[in-house]
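User: Structure tokens for both sequences below?

Assistant:
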Amino acid sequence: MRVTSDEYFQKNTNNQRPIWVRANDANAIPVVGLDRDADYIVAVAAIAAVDGKGACIRLVVDDFTPDLSTRIAALLGQIGLGTHACDLIIDCAEDVASSATAQGLVWKALLDQLPAMNEWRSLTVAAAAFPAALPAAAYRPHGTSPRSDWLGYKALIRMLPKGYRKPTFSDYAVAHPRTELMDPRMLDPNAKIKYTIDDAWFIAMGVQVKKFGRAQYADVCRIITHATPPIFYGAAFSYGDEYIDECANRGGSTGGASTWPTVASNHHITKVVSDVASLNAV
């Protein structure tokens, strides 16, 4: 049975008010796509109506069909918002060309098909180039993997004509979008730190954590802080960098299972924000 956004909110008010984002006044924006079911769309409309923060429309490559404009207009009508109240993301996910120019051309072709390009509250292109697997043979004690998504974005910016709206950039940080369901009790992963540099990820890798212990993370951190040529951005760059420096050089904690993904993601986000700001300042 279809319900209106008002009816949805009345039925779900007791569940929605205590949620973390409202309790902490976080600036959360609901995300919706063209393939979402009716109940999902009603929920987004209800959240947008109550919070007054608009919504985000996420488009994937398969959405770019001849009726794209009609489908977007219908979705906007269903959530009760105009383009000026919505952020728009074109997300290629893991479908990233190894050639920067090719990826730039893909994004440019998709942008050219976008209706009302200059009316969206924000415009972003996104992709996920981080590798799905990190084999020890390629990354121990260290190795690199190209940030093909970022390289493609830089190529896109170079090819945009004067006056063309410049989208911003988003990625999936230091993770691949497809994750496998695995029992951690059956695994003994290698110690590793994923460290974002200018146009690549620098991967420092040790050996199995359960078998050889977490103390090795100090050595893995030193691979980053003492790399030649230098790649380390310094302890003051981000929380993640400070943690790496403390572990490598000052007897800091070697952390737990969630520590190093947090460290890597914090450094990555800081680096990407700096990259985007520097590129768009030119």
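Moving on to the next sequence.
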Amino acid sequence: MNSIWAVVPAAGSSRRLGGEIPKQYREIAGVPLLEHTLRALLESPEIRGIVVALDPSDRRADAIDSLADVRVQTLPGGAERAHSVMAGLQWLSQQANKDDWVLVHDAARPCLPLEALTSLIGRARELGEGVILAEPVADTLKEVAVDGQVTGTVDRQTLWRAQTPQLFPLFALHTALARCLEDGLSVTDEAMAMERAGESVHVLRGPSSNIKVTVEADLAFADWVLRTKGGH
């Protein structure tokens, strides 16, 4: 592993959360959510640079102070998350060396601790293969028919809930994701593309506080986590 880069897809419109303001620009703990996410990545000296894919028509990004950091590059994102990630990977493929790695982190995960990020990078260096943060599933899972009837209970012992960051060799991920998009597949995370390409993917247990903000209650929880971390 040579240099490590980061890609943050942040061009989404937050259809599930609702409201007029995309969730990456909603204020929590005093600043926009995206600002917290970028600060968490910039806190690591191991990350050489960050590429943020934005909606070029949304000027709210002007309020994100970290976008002015020398290590941060912005570019236009796509209609879907995977297209924004691909835009970042394509830009990096012109800048990076063949042995460089890239981690992809959701813009809506503002509570990433430096300890978890450092552990992820260390584990990937140790294995020489892709690693993602994830958390074991704790709830009982049910299979349910279209009419709402339970048809079975799923064994949860081998099930994990994927988080980000997800860290892979840059050019291997670029190739894997490009093939998925060419085949018209809906790619929900980078590990999915690497799995389909036959690449090894490992999990490292991430903290339960590393949530992805999806609904209104998540904003309140993330606000509490960040204010607690900051001593407020």
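User: Anything stand out in the second?

Assistant: The chain has one domain: 4-229.
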